[in-house]
Amino acid sequence: MAATTGYSKAQIMLHWATVVLVASQYLFHDGIADAFEEGLETGAMTVGFPVVLHLGGGMLILGIVIYRLFLRSSEGTPPPPEGEPGWAALAARATHLSFYGILFLLPVTGAVAWAQSSEAASDAHEVLRAVLLVLILAHVGAVLVHQFVWKTGLLSRMTRPS
Amino acid sequence: MQKLLLAALVVGAGYIAWTEYGGGPGLSSAGSGSGGAGFSKFGTAAGNVAGGAVAAIGN
Q: pLDDT digits over B9-56, tens only?
């Protein structure tokens, strides 16, 4: 992996694009949940705008995650900020890896649930959704600690390209 | 600028957590009088277990 002092413009833009897409998936998922439930009960799913939005958003997230993984390997990632305790650096690494894994698996399980009317895949999608929310809260909490307790200026890494 | 971004992140993540597990109304159900979808929408055992775990962590 290449050595770098910060994130590239592409990495930063894709990070914030992921934030917006994931937030919209949480905020507007009722439509696909209703359609899925209806499909399980009647055997016919109504494909309306909310469904298209959720499916399209999920596929976009999947594509972005794969591209971000490619960028991580080609452009590298910056080292932990100075002043960050060792345990926090380890936790951050674990969180980041978990983010990639879950953001990869969520669209896949969602697509399988929808395409196969699979309740098992739907259950997995739901559990992953809950885990992702825990990770998001931990991620935002960590940024707050970095900003106000350790004062590492971590957020500037995701606002200013290196 | 960074403080504004931080505030948006905290409010956004908090709002999502509230709509998912705290009974707050989701945007797509706003105006309908119904609560957020939560796990009970799918009514799956696994979902309920995960929802309970998250609620426990939240408490």
A: 999 999 999 998 887 776 655 434 333 343 334 334 444 444 444 455
Q: Which domain holds residue A139?
A: 9-158
Closest-CA residue of chain B to A40:
B42
In a domain, A133, yes or no: yes
Please count the structural domains in chain A. 1
CATH number at residue A140: 1.20.950
Sort out which chain A residues have CB atoms less than 8 A from B42's CB and list them: 33, 36-37, 122-123, 126
Q: Could you tell me the two tokens for A100? A: 């990639």
Phi and psi (nearest 5°) for A65?
-60, -45
Interface check for A36 against chain B (CB to CB < 8 A): the answer is yes
Answer whether residue A151 is part of any domain.
yes
Neighbour count for residue A131 (Cβ, 10 Å): 18
Q: Which two tokens stand for residue A24?
A: 């919209």
Q: Which residues of chain A make contact with B13, given a CB cutoff of 8 A?
A: 136-137, 140
pTM recorded for the entire structure:
0.82
